[in-house]
Amino acid sequence: MTQKIPATLIPGDGIGPEISEAVVRILGAIEAPFEWDSQAAGMAGIDAHGDPLPKSLLESIRKTGLALKGPLTTPVGGGFRSVNVTLRKEFELFANLRPARTLISGGRYEDIDLVLFRENLEGYYAAMEHYLPVENDPKAVAISTGYNTRAECRRIITYAFEYAVKNNRKKVTIVHKANILKLLTGLFLEEGREVAKKYEGRVEMNERIVDACAMQLVMDPYQFDVIVTTNLFGDILSDQIAGLIGGLGMAPGANIGEKAAIFEAVHGSAPDIAGKGWANPVALLMASGLMLQHIGRKDLADRLQTGIDGAFASGVRTRDLGGSAGTKEITDAIIHHLS
Ligand code: ATP
Ligand code: MG
C-alpha cells in the first residue's frame, strides 16, 4: 500500500462542496494517496466558527503543507480581509501557477499548452498607496509604490526554470517592461538573465516586453511555452491565456510557497447554480492534477487528464459548456474514461 499523504480539503462556498465531492470521488477512483482533512473557510467558516479563516484551517495547512481549495466568498462588510490574499501572505505563497491547455477542440485555438508563473507577493500589488494633497484637494494626486527584490525575482524565476526542467518544457520567456520601468522590472529581467545562464543547454530563455507579449499571445500563442513575470503583468496575462482556451471556467491555478501549496479552481463560487447539481468540476479536478504533479505523481495526473479528455471526446458537456450533463454525469464519464 502506498503511504498516505495528509492534505487539507477546503470544500468552500456555493458550488464548492458539490465540485469538491466530485473531485474526491474521482481521486478515489485512481487511488490518489491523499488523506483529507476537511476544513471550513469563507462563508462556511463564518457559519461554523464565526471566522472566514478559522484557526483550525490555518493549523491544518501548517501541518499538511498541501491544500485543495474550493471557491471562497469573502463576506462583504464586517471588515474581513480577502481570504485568498490572507492565505497567500500567511504562507508566503510566492508563485502563482496558471497553466492553460486546450481541453475541448473547436474553440478559438487548437492545442494551446502554456504555463504562466506570476510573482505573487511583490510588485505593485504590495499596494502601498496614498494620496498627495494639492491646495484644497486632499485627494488630488494618487501614488502607488511597487517594489521588487532581487531575492524574490530569483526565487520565482528559478522556480519557473526548475518547473521547465521537471516537466520537459523547452523554453522560458521572461516578461518585463524594463524599457520604461527600468529599475522595478529591469531588476526582474537582470535576474532572469542570470538564472537562465544556469540552465543553458537545457532550457532556452527569451525575453518579451509585456505589451508585445500580449499581442503575440493573440497572434501566435504557439511560440510560448513557460512564461514568468511580475505580479501585475502576471495577473493580466494569466487571464488572457485562460481566454485562449475558452475562459476561466475550466482553468486551474496553484499558489506555491516553500512550506505550503494551495491548489484551486480559478472560477468563483457560482451562487446562481449552487445546489442544483449542474456545476462543472473540471477546473477543480485539474487543480488536483497540479497537486498530484506537485507531490511527484505525474503518473496519476496523467491518468486524470486521460479521464477528462476521454469524457470530453465522448461529447459529455455540462451546462456552462452548452450541454446538459450535471455534475454527477460528467464525474461518472471521467471515471469511466480513466485509463
Ligand atoms: P464569486 O462571487 O464567488 O466570484 P461569481 O458569480 O461572481 O462568484 P463565478 O462564480 O466565477 O463568479 O461565476 C461566473 C459565472 O460562471 C456564473 O454564472 C456561474 O454560474 C458560472 N460558473 C462559474 N464556475 C462554474 C462551474 N464550475 N460550473 C458551472 N458554471 C460555473
Ligand atoms: Mg466573481
Automatic annotation (TrEMBL):
Give the transmembrane region(s): none
**Oxidoreductase recorded as keyword:** yes
Key words of the record: Oxidoreductase
KW Oxidoreductase (keyword) present? yes
In its UniProt record, which GO terms are filed under biological process? isocitrate metabolic process; tricarboxylic acid cycle
- Give the superkingdom in one word: Bacteria
MF terms in GO: isocitrate dehydrogenase (NAD+) activity; magnesium ion binding; NAD binding
Q: Which family does it belong to?
A: Belongs to the isocitrate and isopropylmalate dehydrogenases family.
Q: Which PANTHER family match?
A: DECARBOXYLATING DEHYDROGENASES-ISOCITRATE, ISOPROPYLMALATE, TARTRATE, ISOCITRATE DEHYDROGENASE [NAD] SUBUNIT ALPHA, MITOCHONDRIAL
Q: What is this protein called?
A: Isocitrate dehydrogenase
Q: Which organism is it from?
A: Kozakia baliensis
